[in-house]
Amino acid sequence: MAGVNQLERDLIRTWKHKGIELNKKEGKFKGRLKKYHKNHAGMNYAVKLYEEVDMNVNEICEITNVSRASLFRKLSERNS
């Protein structure tokens, strides 16, 4: 019984991936949207505080509700 279930699961996964590929070609499937897009007010404010104000990163993250990892990732993207 487990073998039949596994086979069915593999078929479903294959169909799903074929459908996603087809939709990508047609421009219908774009994937997951980013949480911090370029117009995200909190992230932009956090970067501004980091560059202009002498504040601790933890304080900036508490004020703007942006995670530390996301803030550092955005800062490294801007520097490169």
From TrEMBL:
It comes from the Bacteria. InterPro entries: Resolvase_HTH_dom (IPR006120). GO terms for molecular function: DNA binding; DNA strand exchange activity. Pfam families: HTH_7. Residues 31-77 form the Resolvase HTH domain. This is Transposon resolvase. It comes from Bacillus cereus (strain VD014).
